Amino acid sequence: MKLQEMREKTAEELQNAIVDWKKDLFNYKLQLSTHKLENTALISKTKKLIAQAKTVLNQKTEA
After folding, report:
1. Strand, helix or coil at 12?
2. 14: which of 33, 46, 51, 52 is 20 to 30 A away, CA to CA?
């Protein structure tokens, strides 16, 4: 999801997306520890998405 798409979503939709990405991140970490994760870049990309979504969410709640 791009940053512009995040800005267009409601606060509740962003919260749900963050929860989903955290679940994905947990699964990626489990796969990494069992040596089944082939694309390790998914971990950093997911972390970045979570951080961006939290930033947009904070901007929405402050405004």
Report:
1. helix
2. 33
Query: How many angstroms separate the most distant Cα atoms in the chain?
Result: 44
Domain ranges of the chain: 3-62
pTM, full prediction: 0.91
Query: Which of 2, 14, 5 lies closest to 57, judged by CA?
Result: 14
- Asked whether the beta carbons of 57 and 15 are under 8 A apart, the reply is yes
Q: How far apart are CA 56 and CA 29, in angstroms?
A: 25
Reply yes or no on domain 3-62 having CATH 1.10.287. yes
